[in-house]
Structure formats: C-alpha cells, structure tokens
Amino acid sequence: MIEELLPDSVVVVEMLGDETIREAPLYPEEEAIVARAVPKRRREFAAVRACARSAMEKLGIPPQPVVSGERGAPRWPDGLIGSMTHCEGYCSAALARAADLASIGIDAEPQGPLPEGVGESVLLPSEQERLGRLAAERPEVHWDRLLFSAKESVYKAWFPLTGKWLDFMEADIELFPEPGERPRGTLRARLLVPGPTVGGRQLEVFEGRWGAGYGMLASAVVVPHP
Length: 226
Hints:
The strands form three sheets. A five-stranded antiparallel beta sheet has the order 4-10-9-6-5. Strands 1-3-2 form a three-stranded antiparallel beta sheet, covered by helices on one side. A two-stranded antiparallel ribbon has the order 7-8. The chain has five helices and ten strands, in the order βααβββαααββββββ. It has helices at residues 28-31, 39-58, 118-122, 125-137, 143-162; strands at residues 11-16, 80-87, 90-97, 103-110, 171-177, 184-191, 197-198, 201-202, 205-213, 216-223.
C-alpha cells in the first residue's frame, strides 16, 4: 500500500490484517514506554517497530530499539531517516539512508469519514471547497479523511527538519487524482509558515503521493535533497 507511494530508495515493510499484527518482542527501552499501555496499544507499538527493524535489516543496519523523542517522534539510528504509521489492522515503517533523502512522512487511515466536527478544526476553508469538487468526481473516496492523512504525513516529514510543531491550519494541501480505476494520485502542501532550510534552500512546498485500497487511505511525503 504505502510502498507504491514512495521512491525506490525507501525501504517499506508493512503488516496488513489483524491476524498478522501480534505483539512482537520489545527492547527494554521500548518496554518502558508502553509498560502501562492497554494490550491494543502494546500490539500496535510492537508491530510497527517490528516493521522498522525489518526495514533496518534490509538496509544492512543491525536491528535496534526505536524509542520516542520529542513530541513522540521516533529516534532512528545514525545515518537513517524514517516514519511509521498504524491504524486498525495495518502498520508500516518506511526507512531510507539520510544521504538519499532529507525526510519522509507516512500515514494510513481507515477508509471512512472524519468524525463529526473534526473537519472544521483541521481543514482550511480553501481545502474544504476543493474537497467538495473531488467528492463529486470520485464519491467512493472519503476525501476529508484522506486530507487529514496528508496533513499527518506533512507533519511527520516537517518535524525532523525543524523540531517545531506544525498546526493543521499551517499547510494548505491540494490532492490531485490520477486516471485509473483504483483511486490514487499526488499531493502538494503549500506551507503557510516559514519552511525548513534543506541544503541551503528554504522550502515553501512539500510534495507526495496518496492512494486508497484494502479499506484504507494512505499518504506519503518525501523531502529530497536539493
């Protein structure tokens, strides 16, 4: 699902289906984070880290703990960048070498509408207007939830580059469908606050891809080196 949204330089490991998402072994540093968590939270936490360790191995890096840093962002081994996501019945980790890309953000959401009242607090008026047109073209996609996913991916790519919070209302995101039976396409996020500086260039836009399938919506944002 998410693998097809990212370039070949990114290694993606995914688990799909509740029967595959079982509690995996944790390192002591990770165990301390979820020592008091409910079983569902522990399973998701452990499963997505199992995905991350498998991705590390594919990149030739010995498996290591993935602990949470500031604002819960994962801390990756030196020389790696990455992102993780999970929702009901699905989890995924995407990793790449820091020499290949500046940052990655991924997110998966269930294929369903946002809870009532959430859209007003996370979507700009301009975004809501565009979603109305998209819904008329492809009504089978829950565009509000997809846009929420895109905002999550933008934030996950933003934070490692800035160490700062990015509010939902501080990025104006457009979704562009591509022709075909299966819903998929590209996304463009215009930053409404000063963007991060990468390779001496201040970024004003993040770009990525999105897709729908298997009862889910997914998005991925990649920040390349200049």
